[in-house]
Specification:
about 100 residues; mainly beta; two-stranded antiparallel ribbon; 1 helix; about 30% strand
């Protein structure tokens, strides 16, 4: 049996890093805060909530992609895992540009 690689999980949350109230995305699964771009290490595959780590994931870089917009690389503070996530339409554009130019 084939494992599903994407589980839609689009619920709002309060950011564990900056405390911002984050609303549902509406067109895909919300996986990071649009204000500070931090995420939580919850998934092995998008939306599955199977990682078991739970550490805060900091945005360390962003790359423009002609088909996907920006792709953000996050690093987990707790275990060091790296994950790449597509930026959302309402993400902090200034922070995305800074991560693209300077990294973090």
């Amino acid at each position: 049996m084939e494992t599903k690689r994407f589980t839609k999980n689009d619920s709002g949350f309060v950011c564990a890093n900056c405390g911002a109230r984050v609303e549902e995305l509406g067109y895909s699964s919300r996986n990071h805060c649009p204000k500070c771009l931090c995420s939580l290490h919850l998934d092995l595959y998008p939306g599955d909530r199977a990682a078991g780590c739970g550490g805060i994931m900091d945005p360390v870089s962003a790359e423009p992609d002609p088909r996907k917009g920006f792709v953000i690389t996050h690093r987990c503070r707790k275990c060091g895992a790296l994950k790449r996530n597509r930026a959302a339409k309402d993400d902090n554009g200034d922070l995305l540009i800074a991560l693209t130019v300077n990294g973090r």
